[in-house]
Queue: 2 jobs
Job 1
Amino acid sequence: RESLIQWNNAYDTFLRRHVPSGTPSGNDQNAWKEYISSKGCDRPTQSFLDPGDLERVKAVCSDRGGQQLKENLCISRERFSFVTVRSEPKTCGIRTIMRESKHLILACEALENHCLPVHFEGNSWGQ
């Protein structure tokens, strides 16, 4: 039971960090600085997926939308568009805003008979 709560928290954290509502739609640095500041800029690199893609994102953790890469990491069968923002820790100053289109690499864990994403892994292969 304890681990279920832990992983539910990990899934909730994944959603809060990577699939939040209200992200700026463009590349306006002021809008992103305001958004990042309101959420906390303790992580210098943050990637944001479109909330409308949530079901596709969850499918990466299944044969339907992904395949195992190694251990609990799965890679999506198709590319996803997302925004990666690099900011200054503490000041939240925006360094870069990049729109990317890559295969997602997600850490997945089984929760209540469903395998769900709990971590967004950087895709340095650029695939």
Note: The chain has one domain: 2-120.
Job 2
Amino acid sequence: MENNQISLNIYDYIVSKNHDAKDRIAIDYLGRKYTFKELLDNMNIVMQSLSEYGIKKGDSIMALTLATPEFIFLMYGAAKMGITLNILNPFNDENYDSIIARLNPKLLFCYDRFYTKILGKIDNKKIVITSPFDSLPLAMKLTGKIQKLSTNKECITYSEFISKGKKRAKKIEEDTADISNKKIIEIGTGGSTGIPKQVGISNEMLNNVVYQHEIMNKYSVFDVSFNDNETFLDIIPPHLAYGICDIHLALSLKLKLCLEPNPEPKLFVKQLKKYRPNHVLAGPVHWKQLIAYDKKIDLSYIKSAVAGGEHLECNDEIKTNQKLKESGSKVTVREGVGLTEICGVGTYNSTGDLFTVGRPLPEYQVGIFKVDINKEYNDNTHTADELCRVYYQKDKNGELKIVSTGMNNSFTTGEICYQLPIKILGYVGEEHKEENDLLIRLHDDGKYWIHTGDIGYIREDRNLVITDRIKRIFNRYGWKVYPNHITKIVTDSGLVKECVVVKRESLVKGESYVPILYAVLKENTTENRQKLLEWCNKKIIGNSSLYDIIFVDELPKTGAGKIDFTRVENYDKNHNEPVVQDNNEKNKCKKIKIGKK
């Protein structure tokens, strides 16, 4: 299969994929349907408008928005012109000052409900206010609640913005030189550190995701097939890598993209019933809504169901599969895992195995490398020794087969690393140079590998298992303690809604640290607290045994919706003294609220 098209800018890429299907329905947005030709027309109007407002190749613009047609017009139009689009997380309560100061955007597109977040932070810049109703016909607008905002010379509506583009007919200056690896998008990481970094995304990175899925389609890898005009439900916001990949994948594979601006999990079942999608990518919180739906529902139309963004717990995966089966679908939910730095997914699980995250994409390689947690993570030499790797290659019949090396080291844990067929851009900004050096490293095989910071192993069946994060593992009496392993045991009790394990310093000779559990119970009763205590005492033994359990009403989240373990750990450190003796008064019940600092 030829991959020479991945060097195109993403605008030209989708044009090349749809050259014979411009009249097909490309987007269904709340009932408003766009043909592919209409998409291109609107993208071209946006380009004309950007040019009319003095935005040109090399400039930067920002978007604080959700998944709407206007965002799609902007994303592709900006890429075509060589303009960098920085996509901010609208659900963060963070201060955007530092990002705005560094990027110095010429223009900011802001969803009306998020306007107050940037008031006073982007002086002397044009702000274009978008609304979920901009793309809807008047009759549909009248049924919705339109937010009224005052506009002025520097703050205009989307209609005012595109009105200039509609009147302009000059040739747009396109970005044609060395565009394949050019940064077209900046997007924040969604990790659990609570300190998101901006990652550069190139034309080639986005196109490569599509190309890998085309290979999957051709060779039936992961039992996935995409056919023209099948429906794809997009509920992942565009500030996440999965969100922009969803859009580009659907448009490139000639799928009908069912676009929903509201990512609230409670709407998931309603969206399934409304669009009847053949392909669905959703987060664990969305699949849990399907589990909780106690009415009969027809899901026979679902051909592929993927859980991404965060781990879907085994119990929830079992229940989701049961719900899919009893509702007429022939598929099971698959987990995909990856990272923002590689533009989303790196592996898929096609086996239905509850304990793995599957195998790499067709042209990716996954390797496990030795790691010593007693060394500082910024030691650039500590992952030099390869344990094993898995990848696909063609056999003598031209079929793709999974192969591996070093399988005598299967089940041996180490750092999970990816090797990709393309170059990634890494973190944006000189201040992250050292982190980029740690992220992308030249190995003994002469190849550059991407270091995830995750710990895991490869099983004999060549499926990947993630066990923890390097930075979270700690020693207790010289033995490694794996927080994620403990939280899995706690979750298996069925008593907790969510939980996290953090370390607390210990001054007891040789102990170093002890594990502390913060838990949110499904039902916060004395009986359930006692049940959880008994479960933990029975199931968690040895050096992993908990020093303390602290019950809380909620746990803080990152902008991507993951538990922010750094804030929990900082809270614990600031509110508790180091351990000086064995704990005889365990399992407190505190009603606390963990702050941001």
Note: The two ends are 51 Å apart (CA to CA).
